[in-house]
Amino acid sequence: MHIALLVLALAQDPNAFSQADVDRAVRAGAESLQTAPSTGGWMKGNCDELILLTMIHAEVAPTNPKYQEYLANCLQAPLEKTYKVALLAMALEELDAAAYQMKIAQCAKFLVDNQAKNGQWAYGKAADLAEFPFVEAKKNPVKSSGKAR
Q1: Quick check: 109 and 102 in contact, CB under 8 A?
Q2: How far apart are CA 106 and CA 23, in angstroms?
Q3: Which residues contact 22 (CB under 8 A, 6 or more apart)?
Q4: Would you say 78 and 47 are in contact if contact means Cβ atoms under 8 Å apart?
Q5: Whole-structure pTM over 0.90, yes or no?
Q6: Which label site among 41, 50, 53, 83 has the fewest CB atoms less than 10 Å from its CB?
Q7: pLDDT tens, 35-89?
Q8: What is the dihedral of CA 27, 33, 34, 38, to 10 degrees?
Q9: Residue 104 and residue 42: Cα distance in Å, rounded?
Q10: Is residue 90 a contact partner of residue 53, using CB atoms and an 8 Å limit?
Q11: Cβ 114 vs Cβ 92: under 8 Å
Q12: 92 in Cβ contact with 70 (< 8 Å)
């Protein structure tokens, strides 16, 4: 019994972080994102989608003004870059997949349209969403039998 306790004591990493340390770091990072610039970097433009997804995972309040600003920017931005569109789809799924299903479907169309024959993705070429198949205004009326015409 004493040997088991000794082995457990020696196996613990003295440099390990506690959950409280991790939580503090996440809060500090989320606070930093609220003042960090969104321009430049690896996305060759802004990083709004990445920042929004990070804020969601850091559990920043949806009522936070910067959160709202990033969400609005992301929803209004054209679907043009593969990385940004994929991040947007992930963020919207985390927020409310049902409420944002139309935008997520548009993201999916963009990603499918930009997938190469070998399975990889191009950096992005705008998808033609004018003929998007899931536009709610074009729903078919339903017959009394319950089947769509």
Answers
A1: no
A2: 34
A3: none
A4: no
A5: no
A6: 41
A7: 777 776 555 678 899 999 999 999 999 999 999 999 999 999 989 889 999 999 9
A8: -170
A9: 23
A10: yes
A11: no
A12: no
